[in-house]
Amino acid sequence: MQLTSPVTDIKGVGKDAEQKLAILGIHTVSDLINYYPRRYDDYSNVQAIRAITPGMVTIKATIKQAAGRYVRRGMHITEAVASDDSGSTKLVWFNQPYRAAALKPDTDYYISGDFGLRSQRLSILNPSVELVGNFVINTARIVPIYRETKGLKSGQIRKYIREVSSLVNSLPETLPEWLVDEERLISRSEALSQIHFPASSESLSVAKRRLGFEEVFELTLSALMNKYELLKEHTSSITFDKKLAQEFVRHLPFTMTDDQKRVVWQIYQDLQKEIPMNRLVEGDVGSGKTVVAAMAAVMAIKQGFQVAFMAPTELLARQHAETIAKLLEPLGMGALVGLLVGGLKPVDKKRAHSAVASGEMMFIVGTHAIIAEKVDMHNLGLVIIDEQHRFGVQQRKKLETKVGHAVHVLSMTATPIPRSLALTLYGELDVSIISTKPANRKPIKTKLVPFASRAQLYESLKDQLVTGRQVFVVCPLVSPSDMVPAKSAEKVYDELSKKFLKDWRVGLLHGQMKSAAKEAVMQAFLDHKLDVLVSTTVIEVGVDVPNAGVMIIESAERFGLAQIHQLRGRVGRSEHQGYCFLVLSDNKAPSSRLRAVQSSSDGFKLAEYDLELRGPGAIYGTMQHGQLDLRIAKLSDVRLIASARKAAQSFLDKGESLGQFKELEGRVLKAMAVTNLN
Ligand code: ADP
Ligand code: MG
Q1: Does 569 sit in the ligand 1 pocket, CB within 6 Å?
Q2: How far away, in angstroms, is 301 Cα from ligand 2 center?
């Protein structure tokens, strides 16, 4: 038998079991070995019968008087008496008619099961029974529990894995020897053997450490390799011009925060290199990322490089084009800024294309369409992507093929990315963080609202609306759903426009609307032709509406903390006090998660908290991280990640070649494809 053998080569696996195993994704012996337990039941504590108390127990006893009978049709019961030196107890099995015949008299068995009171008598129900002296898999040990499927129980899977144990014991090492030594890891074969049948809870945690380390090592190695790929590329250096930087700052209507200055400086240093920049700027909504980007851009433009700035929506692009033109005006560069979006009139589009090609337009503001457009660039040197965590390696390649050379890339996001993720999933990026906001901002007041107070909340909103403030209402769903008990934008829009706020102008916005309709609604809200905007999270990366003072989040328990934090950042962007109300779906006491978002305004802390509780999906919504399939390691385990990252770095520094470690190579290449994504 080999790792690649089909499961039918395993003793006891027939056609039927083959199909059931296939449902669990297990086709080969290797799949089976790599099918880790979901959890464990600890039956390792063998007790005297006199000492057992109700609950899961294990005893070592002989079995007498085993007898089975049908109590009624289809209901068989086997009863027996188990005895040790200290006493005896009853054993009961339902619908296991083969039991009585299988039990030998005067023989010591380990018996594990649930001890409790049934029909007024204490007994152990449906216990597992194994001969003392054999290698036990179901009793008197820490017992692995696997994800099961109909007709294939954990006990069966245990048996199959036990059948291939000699193969597990001879599995080759997948990591370099020096690494295994340095990290004091146990061998791969030992780890896999222990993950299925741990000798103790200590050896189980040592096995988990080894396998978890390997997972994170693969991930960080793949991220570093992505990074090194980029380091091999070559692009034009954009030199630092101190006078220009000073002039830019002098003309700003405000003083830049220390964080903004520091980040600009980091970007300038990247730009001076002949290696393409790959930097992510993270900063809360309103922390002032646009100015930072513009300041980087002027340096490029002054030296004859074109800059492309891509926003997630056309409306945002339009807003950015205006803001940026104003920022560049005093430097005499205002006229170089132009808009290139899909929605331009054909004649304007044609004009824009030729301006881009001729270099008349040096600062192109648009959506991702810029890359897709059939337009010749004029010495493109810097690409800025707004509100995106990263520009994937694949996207970058596509762009570079289009323009014929490598470019500097700067992405900007309001999503806080915890350090552990920055080192793994985002490991190929250099990260700059703007953690302070401009001084003139008031912290947003956040309040949890039980469902019973919802009507009252909408009533009290009128006070805000009267003073001319605008209100966002965000819902987790577009339409009502029978499956998900949460508020939908359509339903809330109905409630508000027909009942709670019927004298006010209420609008509706969600992702299923056509993009022109979406832009029109957003524009109406921006122009204050609407007082209230009911929407889904599509407004997360919306336009800047300084007049919006209140953010209401319906069925708030449905949202990730980082997401709520980002949403509330959409209000309180002017001198007015901003408010955020988190409306719950019920009247129960709010969870500690939601209380955290009420009491903390630190996006990173909230993201880390959610990462711990709910995994990366909670922070990034629908991102592809499901494909990562980390089964043992937790991406919130900062210490593990730090040591794996260090090891991956040494692996590359030592000039190790992946080709020598075939299995590792396969998995790293797979991880590279995932960490390459956007
Ligand atoms: P974001 O980081 O969300 O993209 P913006 O760049 O849109 O934030 O900035 C939000 C607002 O703050 C803008 O109106 C901008 O002009 C203003 N702003 C940026 N930096 C400062 C600063 N240092 N002091 C005061 N206002 C600033
Ligand atoms: Mg922005």
Answers
A1: no
A2: 21
**Closest C-alpha to 363, from 395, 393, 331, 396:** 331
How far is the C-alpha of 541 from the C-alpha of 310, rounded, in Å?
13
Nearest CA to ligand 1 atom 26: 438
Q: What is the pLDDT of residue 628?
A: 57
Q: Is 291 in the pocket of ligand 1 (CB under 6 A)?
A: yes
Closest CA to 590 of 450, 468, 482, 485: 450
Nearest residue to 138 via CA among 155, 121, 125:
155
CA 595 – CA 609 distance, rounded (Å): 12
State the Cα–Cα distance between residues 562 and 554, nearest whole angstrom.
16
Average pLDDT of span 324-332: 96
Comparing C-alpha atoms, which of 157, 139, 158, 129 is closest to residue 66?
Answer: 129
CA 612, CA 307: separation in Å to the nearest integer?
Answer: 39
The pLDDT tens digits for 573-609 are: 777 889 999 999 998 988 888 999 999 888 888 888 8
| 216: Cβ contacts below 8 Å, ≥ 6 apart | 424, 630, 633, 637, 640, 641, 644, 645
pLDDT in tens, 101-145: 999 999 999 999 999 998 888 999 999 999 999 999 999 999 999
**What are the beta bridge partners of residue 143?**
41
Q: Whose Cα sits closest to atom 23 in ligand 1?
A: 256
544 CB near ligand 1 (under 6 Å):
yes
Of ligand 1's listed atoms, the one at least distance from the Cα of 323 is 16
CB distance 570 to ligand 1 below 6 Å: no
Using an 8 Å Cβ cutoff, are 370 and 377 in contact? no
Report d(CA 590, CA 209) in Å as an integer: 35
Tokens of residue 389, six digits: 């965590």
Q: What's the confidence (pLDDT) of residue 118?
A: 84
Token pair 């002949």 is found at 274
Distance between start and end Cα atoms, the chain: 41
Residue identified by tokens 């007082």 is 531
Residue-wise pLDDT for 146-190, tens only, equals: 999 999 999 999 999 999 999 999 999 999 999 999 999 999 999
Does the C-beta of 560 come closer than 6 Å to ligand 1? no
Q: Which of 305, 392, 472, 473 shows the shortest CA–CA distance to 677? A: 392
Atom of ligand 1 nearest to the CA of 292: 6
Q: Is 295 in the pocket of ligand 1 (CB under 6 A)?
A: no
Q: Is 286 in the pocket of ligand 1 (CB under 6 A)?
A: yes
Fill in the DSSP letter of residue 164.
T
- Residue 264 pairs in a beta bridge with none
Q: Measured in angstroms, how far is the CA atom of residue 607 from the centroid of ligand 2?
A: 19
From the centroid of its chain, how far is CA 456?
36
Query: Does ligand 1 have an atom closer than 6 angstroms to the CB of 306?
Result: no
Atom of ligand 1 minimally distant from the CA of 289 = 2
Which atom of ligand 1 is nearest to 256's Cα? 23
Report whether 413 contacts 388 (CB < 8 A): yes
Q: Name the 3-class secondary structure at 83.
A: strand
User: How far apart, in whole angstroms, are the C-alpha atoms of residue 438 and residue 441?
Assistant: 6
Pocket probe mutation, ligand 1, options 285, 287, 568, max atoms within 8 Å of Cβ:
287
Residue with the larger pLDDT of the pair 272 and 608:
272
Average pLDDT of the residues in 488-510:
95
